[in-house]
Amino acid sequence: MLHILETITPYDYHIIRAGLGHGSGLDSPGFLSLLHIAPRIGDAFEEQLKSRGLTYDDIYRRHEEFFGLHDVAERMLDFDERVQVFRFHHLKLAQRIIGGGVIGTMGTPVEVLQQRMQHLAYRELWDLRNQITAKASANAPQYKTRG
Fold first, then answer.
1. CA–CA separation, 40 vs 37, rounded Å?
2. Cys-Cys crosslink for 54: which of 58, 71, 128, 143, Cβ 3.0 to 4.6 Å?
């Protein structure tokens, strides 16, 4: 639906803006319910790891052995990525239609939309990529550059 809203002129948008109420963007009940489910999924996933004595690194390093847990972790990351893409798209839509330095439909400054983009539901899964890359870089052969 965001793509459809991009076709509306700023003047036309203000005609329908008041009617959006709680149904707009990041304040919609549907979006908020997704955000409330995400921590519960993360907690359940961490409990599964803990009960088996595993770490995030274990299920990625030994992904064939722990395929199910690895797959769930990847689906969690897919969800988190899609939320980030939605937040980015919503921010750009708001900037395009109402501007970047104004108050949104629920009284939230548009700048807050940008701040919310920093939130990750599964930061451990994102941070793990940094750790894996750091380990790989530390173990990689060092090549001399010709000078």
1. 5
2. 58
**Domain regions of the chain by residue span:** 25-132
Please work out, in degrees rounded to the nearest 5, the angle formed at the alpha carbon of residue 1 by the alpha carbons of 39 and 9: 125
Tens digits of residue pLDDT in 3-57: 777 888 888 887 777 776 656 666 677 888 888 999 999 999 999 999 999 999 9
pTM given for the model = 0.80
**DSSP-assigned letter for residue 22:** G
Band (147; pLDDT cuts 50, 70, 90): low
Taking the C-alpha atoms of residue 15 and residue 12, their distance in angstroms, rounded to an integer, is 5
In this structure, the number of other CB atoms found within 10 A of the CB of residue 94 comes to: 23
In whole angstroms, give the CA distance from residue 120 to residue 77. Answer: 10
Which of 107, 100, 42, 108 minimizes the C-alpha distance to 75? 42
H or E stretch including 4? helix 2-5
Query: What does the DSSP 8-state code read for residue 100?
Result: S
Contact 27, 91 (CB under 8 A): no
Token match 């000078």: residue?
A: 147
Beta bridge mates, 33: none
Cα 35 to chain centroid, rounded: 10
